[in-house]
Amino acid sequence: MPQAAPDYACAMPANLYALGAIALWASLASLGVSLRHVPPFLLTGLALLAGSLLALPFVLKDRQQWHIPASTLLLGVYGLFGFHFLLFIALRHAPPVEANLVNYLWPLFMVVLAPLFLPGVKLRAGHVVAALLGFAGAAVAILGARMGAAGGGWAWGYLPALGSAFIWASYSLLTKRVPAFPTAAIGLFGLVSGLLSLLCHWALEPSVALSGRDGALIAVMGLGPLGAAFFLWDRALKLGDARQIGILSYLTPLGSTALLMLVSGRALSWSIGLAAAMIIGAAVLGTRSK
Q1: Whole-angstrom Cα distance, residue 232 to residue 17?
Q2: What is the CA radius of gyration of the chain?
């Protein structure tokens, strides 16, 4: 059953929750680049386990918080595990700033894919134009990296960046289709995803020794963009309109790209600026196309 449209009283707190998640996610790519020497399965696993700890106070108070259908748990693992693993792969195998912009097609995907995942939501001509503009922006970012000194050519890491965008958009939309679940269940998503990641690390990756700095950065990543942000995002989706939240999400590439350029020492280029403007403009157009 499609959920009823949220009223104004619900929209305001939903937007605040979304903005909180967006602020935390702005640091994700920079943390990922700072930890790019850590094997991706290990990084994903440790960070997700750290983030799942935030749910413990709620679960200890009421264990029913984690009693959810298996299909809902699988959806959560698909979103949390799939998105972050592909993102960390992308940041290792493509120029980070450009890969980050490609990954931030996910808010546009939320708008364009909403008619496919949510009953009663229709695809308009403006959505199609927005999709074309957004993908053109991603192409500008990739071609700009190829032409610039930092790029050096096509990098296959753009493909997992695109895949991570699709996974997070589809996960966000599908949470509105499954039976309602407590926000604390996000901690179970992170716990199972983290354990799966560590199992893959044990089976597929070489063991490494982490420094104290690595541990501190992983803890920050886990408690922030891979922890509290999930809980805030889930509350936003439960209270608000996915299309309205989608447009707020385009504040993320602005903050994320600026912080990532600062960390990586990259100067602002015409291609990065144009790509960011095109992708953000696509989201605005897509969200306003009722």
Answers
A1: 5
A2: 18
CB 71 within 8 A of CB 178: yes
Q: What span, in angstroms and rounded, lies between the C-alpha atoms of 278 and 29?
A: 20
Q: pTM here? A: 0.79
What is the rounded CA–CA span in Å between residue 277 and residue 268? 13
Q: Cα(111)–Cα(107) distance, rounded to whole angstroms?
A: 7
8 Å CB contact between 238 and 183? yes
Distance CA 154, CA 247 (A): 29
- The DSSP code for 151 is T
pLDDT band at 12; cut points 50, 70, 90 = low
Per-residue pLDDT tens over the stretch 121-132: 777 777 678 777
CA–CA dist 196, 190 (Å, integer): 10
3-state SS class at 38? coil
Answer yes or no: are the C-beta atoms of 26 and 256 closer than 8 Å: yes
Tens-place pLDDT, residues 35-93: 989 999 999 999 999 999 999 998 988 888 899 999 999 999 999 999 999 999 998 88
User: Could you give the CA distance from residue 46 to residue 53 in angstroms, rounded to a whole number?
Assistant: 11
Q: Among 148, 132, 133, which residue's Cα sits nearest to residue 98?
A: 148
Structure tokens at 229: 């942000």
